[in-house]
Amino acid sequence: MYEKIDEKDLTIYRFLVENSDRNINYVVECPQTKEALIIDPLDNNTIENIINDNNLIPKMVINTHAHPDHIAGNSYFLEKYGIKLRAHDICKKIFDYDFDNIFENDILSFGKLSAKILHTPGHCPEHISIIINDYILCGDTIFSCGVGNVKFRGDVSMLFRTIQHKMKNLPETFKLLPGHDYFENNIGFLKSILLKGTDFYNEVDKLLSQNDKNILSPIKNIDFEKKYNPFFRIDEFSFMDLIKENEKFSGLNMEERFKELREMRDQW
Ligand SMILES: [Fe+2]
Q1: pTM of the predicted structure, to 2 decimals
Q2: CATH number of 3-178
Q3: Predicted confidence band at 48 (pLDDT cuts at 50, 70, 90)?
Q4: What are the structural domain ranges in the chain?
Q5: Distance 139 CA to ligand 1 centre (A)
């Protein structure tokens, strides 16, 4: 089962992989030419169904980063369709097979569409995000109401800079296509750190109670993240007022607050 999102010049297919990490796989199509990109393939069978059901012509596989759950299907699709893999240059230290490197601001064409690359390190050094029209495939950099961990080759200072200087500057209408569906846990964490009794707490509580974790959570935009993603708001004094143990953050600069919040999320 997969979801098909039809936009005027763009079709996105997405589905929740049936694993404990709740990976989301994506295929992006230019509907005029049927040419398609495969992003971070993990569930090869469902991606094959998407390709066959919709008569797609795969053009390339792109990896947002080289963690095992984002690259597992690479070889299958490269061999089956004779297409290229694109990933950040840093992956040459990791992959033992050929790929074409990509860098910040590269534009990759497929059909009549183009995909612009942003280098978004932090979760790991090679992490990229992919902008297609007003969608951003952001891998494990941002999840709805959260950010990626920094446990496996990550760097929290780099992640802070990526969120603060790149992701927060994207247009508010940009829609996020993250690599995992962690909305339920992230909104639960947010609720756990908030003071009870504020309007904001009640809104967050409502979001949590209305969420159905058995289905893919709805797509959110940057505007939503600016309100409900604590990692987007950690620099705001007004947000500090909404947090229960805000003394943990007093005297810390913005980057230190971000690190403290990441540690609180790790321990939650
Ligand atoms: Fe990852």
Answers
A1: 0.97
A2: 3.60.15.10
A3: very high
A4: 3-178, 185-267
A5: 7
